[in-house]
Every structure is written in structure tokens, then in C-alpha cells.
Write a structure and sequence with these properties.
alpha/beta; single chain; 12 strands; about 230 residues; 6 helices
């Protein structure tokens, strides 16, 4: 339903199978975690995508700092990266670090650091890892804060992410595969999309998500979806 919007060029689905995504979108597979349900199909699916001959991007481990998601320590993620991701790195295959949340402090359910505090030791321990970009997620406040506050928090987090995205002494691009305002999303996007497009280090972003009541409405594109797709 978004086919008429030519600014939308890529998509992901937290998995390694396109699942019917139209071929004109650049599909970015994700190894969600090291659970067998994901690793068991990973190599076959990646090899199919690589066979296209195009530049391929791969994302590793979805929110390892969250217990209900990949739920991994930085050290376990480094080991998983070496086992499942590193072997695919080449001139035309670009690999991302794990996608962290915008949580802060320590996750009481796991005892692990959250957000950028999880990412930093991962990048330090994964010295020499062929990481081409750093994905981060962001969700806005849930206590009724103003659009201006959400915009300020988003920019602060992304600036911190850009500062943290250093691999082997070199700055690398930041991706935002998930971000969502839980307040006035229309007003938020009006402020944020031009800013994102002006950030040279932010290479790709994707609003959360193509779902009824968010970017779609019934069988069509919602007002918010149209704003996002045409900004």
C-alpha cells in the first residue's frame, strides 16, 4: 500500500525472511537472537539474499538489553557476533551491531546495563569486529510530556548514539530501525524528520510501525503514514 511513496526504500521485520515484502524494497534481515528458532534458518536465508549480488545489510540481535527480546550480555553478544555474523563481512555486505533500546541504568530483570550503556562495552569487547553501522531504538515518554520535550529527548539520545558509534577508532553511521512518539506523533514527525535528514551520520531510520492505527488505517495509509512517507 506504500508503493506510490518513492521515499520509502527499505524495510525490516526482526527476522531473516522477506515474508512477502515487495522486491523493490531493500530488505534488511535481522538475526533476532541466538535462539535456535532464529539461528536455524539464518545461514540459508542470508545466502539467498546475498545471491542477488546487491549490497546487503545485516542487523544483529534485537534489543539484547531487554529481557523479553534478545536478552544477552555484551559478552554473549560478542560471541554470537563472531559465530553468526562476522563470516559474512565483505565489501558488499555491511553488518550492524546489536540494536539497543533507549533504556537507561540497569535492567532489574536481567542485571545488565541498558541502552547505550550496554552498547559501549559491546563495542569495546568486539574490537576488530567488522561493524559498519550502529542501530538504536527510541520510544518517547509515556507520562504525557509535551511534543517539545519528546523532540528534545530524541535529539539528545541520537546525539549520544552518534558519539558512541565508534568502531575501531572510526565513527560509523547510526541507524534507527525503530522510533515512535507515544504522544502527538504528527507534530513530533514535523519536527524530527527534517532534523534527521540533516544529520550526516544518521544513515537510515524507520518509524514504528506499519500497523493498523499507526502508519496504516484499514486497507490504506493513515494520515500519520502519509506524513511520514512524504516528508
Amino acid at each position: 500500500m506504500f508503493d506510490e511513496y518513492n521515499k520509502l526504500t527499505w524495510a525490516h521485520n526482526w527476522d531473516s525472511n522477506r515474508a512477502g515484502l515487495p522486491s523493490h524494497y531493500d530488505y534488511v534481515p535481522t538475526l533476532h537472537s541466538t535462539k535456535e528458532v532464529h539461528t536455524g534458518q539464518w545461514d540459508n536465508n542470508v545466502k539467498k539474499i546475498i545471491s542477488s549480488g546487491k549490497t546487503v545489510y545485516l542487523m544483529s540481535f534485537n534489543e539484547p538489553d531487554i529481557a523479553a527480546q534478545a536478552n544477552m550480555s555484551p559478552g554473549a553478544a560478542v560471541a554470537g557476533f563472531y559465530q553468526y555474523m562476522k563470516k559474512y563481512a565483505s565489501d558488499n555486505i555491511k553488518i550492524g551491531s546489536p540494536s539497543v533500546s533507549n533504556g537507561v541504568g540497569t535492567n532489574p530483570a536481567t542485571g545488565q546495563p541498558m541502552g547505550l550503556d550496554w552498547l559501549k562495552p559491546f563495542l569495546q569487547e568486539c574490537a576488530g569486529c567488522p561493524i559498519s553501522f550502529v542501530p538504536v531504538h527510541w520510544y518517547g515518554c509515556t507520562d504525557g510530556c509535551s511534543t517539545a520535550d519528546d523532540v528534545a529527548l530524541f535529539k539528545k539520545q541520537m546525539n549520544a548514539a552518534m558519539s558512541a558509534a565508534v568502531v575501531n577508532g572510526q565513527k560509523v553511521p547510526v541507524w534507527i530501525p525503530e522510533f515512535q512518539c507515544l504522544g502527538d506523533a504528527q507534530a513530533f514527525l514535523e519536527e524530527i524528520l527534517p532534523w534527521l535528514d540533516d544529520q550526516g551520520q544518521i544513515e537510515r531510520y524507520s518509524y514504528f510501525m506499519v500497523q493498523d492505527g499507526i502508519l496504516t488505517q484499514g486497507n490504506g495509509v493513515s494520515d500519520l503514514g502519509a506524513k511520514y512517507a512524504t516528508a
